[in-house]
Amino acid sequence: MKNPLQRLCIACCSAGLAALALPAAAQASWTALQQSHFPGKTLEAAPFIHLTAPSRAPSGEQVPFAFSIDHPMTAQQHIKSVTVFVDENPVPLTAVFHFNPQSGKAEISTRIRFESDSPVHVVAETNDGRLYVNAATVRASGGCGGPVNGDNPAALAAAGKMKLALDGPFKKGSVNQARLLIKHPMYTGLQRDLRTNGFRPAFFIDKIEVSYNGKPVMTADTAIGISEDPFIQFGFVADQPGSLQVRIRDNAGTTFRQSLEVGG
Amino acid sequence: MRRLLWLLLAAVAAQVGAAPLRLEQVAPGVYVHIGQHKDFEEGYDGDIANIGFVVGRDGVAVIDTGGSYAVGMALKEALRTITRLPIRYVINTHVHPDHVFGNAAFVEDSPRFIGHAKLREAMALRGDGYLRKLTKQLGSAAADSRLVAPGETVQDRLSLDLGGRKLELRAWPNAHTNNDLSVFDATSGTLWTGDLLFIERTPSIDGDVKGWLAAMDALDKLPAAATIPGHGPVTRDKHQALARQRAYLDALLRDVRASIRQGSGMLEAMETAASSERGHWQLFDVVNRRNVNALYPALEWE
Q1: SS3 B231
Q2: Which residue among A86, A170, B47, B107 is least crowded, i.e. fewest CB within 10 A of its CB?
Q3: Nearest by CB to A4, which of B122, B268, B296?
């Protein structure tokens, strides 16, 4: 009898294998993305980039997605950035996460949008410029252009509110996991606006910066492919008790801050 | 001889074009077609919701029209085997495609299309996506399907007169969707709940669970000799059916909240939440996963 997490892992691994043989249309999208984002570069297939995503998502709006990269995270040798593409989305570039040795491990758990069935490609860049890639395929739809539910003024008024919490008890000297929740409508620019008979303007968080005791641990450049009310789980190394600080910015330039005292 | 054969073939072809739906008489003048429990993703044919009509002295009110023009036409064919009275009203219980795409089949009868005050907006927001999806699901069987918005909407209550027979329409606050409408036929004591009540098929959430539970309390208190749910068989025991639905929604809320508290994550909750209810419902895995996926991000902000 397998526990649910093991079952999920099997689902995600088989999704990863399926991605190795992309259908022609999906392959064309990925080829174009590679050419525009990594011209002239070689991307090495990397099974040590572990992906978790449902092979079939009940909705394209809030698709749980995680990557975890088995790679050293020392000053000499570490993953510097991880770029996430949902190939078939209107805006495929979903987020770029920046890591450093203080991150502990290059891993993120979040929720992303799928407008249609699509591969999700994850490209990791090391500090010495090597590029690694892995992919999974998800069946889902309607995540980017689907209807906006809920009340627009209320969503705008609450935008920027955050919740920040540790996942489990504080572990001094090792990698801690923190969960960040951001209240934000993350309007994609592709959602109908009945008042204007056009589209609601894009309005989204485009930057997330996290530091611990003043040292950066993770930064993310985020786009409309991140789901409404963003959820980001990330790691950080804590040598001693201290202050975890988050600063976020939306595409209108407004910034918001949240902090959490840990280990005290 | 050959001519006779052609006539026979033509007659058969005509019947295939609009084979009347199978109807069940719930009470004198109250007819329903019970939809099948099929999912939207697997073998969907547009005929999964309960749809039907009430016949008065002067006219007919259709209550929900099915998931395609073809299903709407088949409902009308069935209706015409019962009565030649004019179709005065087409009432939609909510925006979901399995209940409304058949509206198009009734346009030529010029009825008054009636729905919740928020139905028009919901149709406008979702119409394009619904039609794209329907075409993908049904292919050529989606032909001529389109959404027909209500010409008349219900803010709170509305009474319709079919001639010696009154229908009481009631608009609900955000529950299964934000545009749920129930219909009560006082003459026979029949209550049409739309998707405020599911029997057998796993209840799906597209509105507000707490609002839905409140609506269920109110429905429980309404007198009804027979209750027609949005999905599943007609019941004479509304109280028990509501209790079963409440057990599912309570378990779902309890387990999702516990998962959020423990931080075990949405993906795991999609596999495990409300699993104590799995044996009681059809299409449980697919619908329950969808519910958790919709509910989890919202409940994180409680």
Answers
A1: strand
A2: A170
A3: B268
Q: Would the pTM count as exceeding 0.80?
A: yes
Length of chain B: 302
pLDDT in tens, B18-56: 678 999 999 999 999 999 999 887 789 999 999 999 999
The complex scores an ipTM of: 0.86
Measured CA to CA, the distance from residue A62 to residue B98 in angstroms comes to 23
Contact B270 A145 (CB under 8 A): no
Of B125, B268, B296, the CB nearest to A147: B125
Chain B contact set for A5 (CB, 8 A) = 268
Q: How far is B289 from chain A, CA to nearest CA, in Å?
A: 7
Identify all chain B residues contacting A192, using CB atoms and an 8 Å cutoff.
124-125, 128
**DSSP annotation of A202:** P
> Does the distance separating the beta carbons of B270 and A148 come in below 8 Å?
no
Tokens 């009565």 sit on residue:
B83
Among A56-60, B58-62, B247-251, B276-280, where is mean pLDDT lowest? A56-60
| Tokens of residue B85, six digits | 């009275």
The domain spans of chain B are 20-236
Domain ranges of chain A: 4-262
CA neighbor of A162 nearest in space, from A141, A146, A181, A143 = A181
**The two structure tokens encoding residue A231:** 């959820």
Architecture of the domain whose range is A4-262: Sandwich (2.60)
A183 and chain B in contact, CB less than 8 A: yes
User: Which residues fall within 8 angstroms of residue B107, CB to CB, at 6 or more apart?
Assistant: B148
Q: Which amino acid is at B87?
A: I
Q: How many CB atoms lie within 10 A of CB A3?
A: 11
The whole-number pLDDT of residue A54 equals: 94
Q: Residue B120 and residue B225: Cα distance in Å, rounded?
A: 31
Residues ≥6 apart with Cβ < 8 Å to A202: A187, A188, A189, A224, A251
pLDDT at B11: 42
B20-236: CATH, from 2.130.10.10, 3.40.50.1240, 3.40.50.261, 3.60.15.10: 3.60.15.10
